[in-house]
Design brief:
CATH superfamily of the largest domain: P-loop containing nucleotide triphosphate hydrolases
Distance between the termini: 42 Å
CATH architecture of the largest domain: 3-Layer(aba) Sandwich
Order of helices and strands: EHEHEHEHEHEHEHHEEHEHEHEHEHHH
Number of domains: 2
Helix content: 40-55%
CATH class of the largest domain: Alpha Beta
Shape: elongated
Structural class: alpha/beta
Length: 378
């Protein structure tokens, strides 16, 4: 029988040796120990233990911070806390950090070994099931980006997502406009829980916690809404956003990310993690200029190959598609016609165009875009 690899982390040498002495079992392989701190994470990554025992002294804050990093960096490992002073506060913090078990120290050898076996067995079962899900669901990330505000970026993102859901795809949408996102308005859903409520980063790697905050629209699209107010945007860091995206990946066919018109750090994380970037533009000189600059930046960041241009309000003004292609030096494959009457009416009702006005030319083109997304990255 293969032995369970166990590592111990703590600041008290005597306690480390005491805990090690409790691991006398043919089923346990002690692989090493480390003091808490930055080196602990590095050593753990190199040793790759299946179970990590962390000895907590005082308030346990350092242990909790380390456990949180291990939860993200080593998702296949289980963490057990042995605490000198056990309290509800430590248990609560440990739970949010992904710790499997919390015990008061001292503990007897039989109980410790039994629980090491238990958490390892549970983690292996979860990992095997998770791998099955990942194998069966290869999520595609689509970031909808634009170099200027007011060009219909969110309208296109929302309707493309609904069009994919109408095709039987499992779709999630992240509103990454963290200060003024209004995807919820386009779907007419209440802002009860938002992306900033993910325990300020503690739950970003927990799919159950993420799903609890998402709103399932009747179209089939699950929505992770932007914060209720601009000041809450600071609770969502770049690292949080990347963890959220990667945590959601195995559970959806498509994840649509709506963004702000800027090369912000959050936008760059979305773009870098995407399979496809839809760069929205429209036929006016100012927008086309910004779009051309954006293409140059995306080229320099090695993100150009997965970028597709979408011209919104394609029949607006005197600039033709031929002119646009010449200015941008790209072939334009995706064009959405202008229909202010339908667009405004659907927005005010909070009903996506492809649902409320399915026979209109604009809805037909939006559905075509949904099909094109599938053909481009499937």
């Amino acid at each position: 029988m293969e032995k369970i690899k166990v590592m111990i982390i703590g600041n008290n040498d005597n306690r480390i040796y005491e805990i090690k002495s409790l691991l006398g079992s043919d089923e346990i392989a002690f692989v090493g120990f480390s003091k808490q701190g930055e080196m602990a994470l590095e050593k753990t990554l190199s040793l790759k233990p299946e179970v990590i025992i962390i000895h907590c002294d005082e308030d346990g804050e350092d242990a909790v911070n380390l456990a949180e990093k291990l939860y993200i960096k080593m998702p296949s490992s289980s963490v057990i806390f042995l605490c000198e002073h056990l309290s509800i506060s430590i248990i609560d913090k440990a739970m949010f950090a992904g710790v499997r078990k919390v015990f008061q120290f001292p503990i007897d050898s039989f109980s410790l070994i039994e629980n090491i076996q238990l958490v390892n067995r549970v983690e292996k079962s979860r990992s095997e099931n998770s791998n099955t899900v990942i194998a069966n669901m290869e999520s595609r990330i689509v970031t909808v980006f634009g170099a200027k505000g007011g060009i219909g970026k969110t309208t296109i993102a929302v309707n493309a997502g609904v069009a994919l859901a109408q095709m039987g795809k499992k779709v999630a949408m992240i509103d990454a406009n963290l200060q003024f996102g209004d995807v919820n308005v386009f779907f007419d859903v209440d802002l009860k829980d938002t992306i900033s409520d993910l325990s300020q980063g503690r739950d970003t790697g927990d799919i159950d916690a993420i799903k609890k905050l998402m709103v399932l629209h009747y179209s089939g699209v699950s929505i992770l809404c932007a914060p209720k107010s601009p000041e809450y945007a600071e609770y969502v860091s770049v690292k949080n956003m990347e963890t959220i995206i990667n945590t959601m990946r195995p559970y959806y066919d498509y994840i649509i990310i709506d963004t702000i018109p800027a090369f912000s750090d959050v936008n760059m994380i979305a773009i870098e993690n995407s399979n496809l970037v839809l760069l929205i533009s429209e036929p006016d000189i100012s927008t086309l200029r910004n779009t051309k600059v954006s293409l140059t930046i995306l080229e320099s960041l090695q993100q150009r190959e997965k970028t597709e241009i979408v011209i919104n309000r394609a029949d607006k003004g005197t600039i033709s598609i031929k002119d646009i292609q010449k200015v941008l030096d790209v072939q334009v494959k995706h064009k959405i016609p202008q229909d202010l009457k339908v667009g405004i009416a659907c927005h005010n009702k909070g009903v996506p165009i492809v649902i409320d006005a399915p026979r209109t030319p604009i809805a037909q083109e939006l559905r075509k875009l949904g099909k094109a997304i599938v053909s481009m990255i499937d």
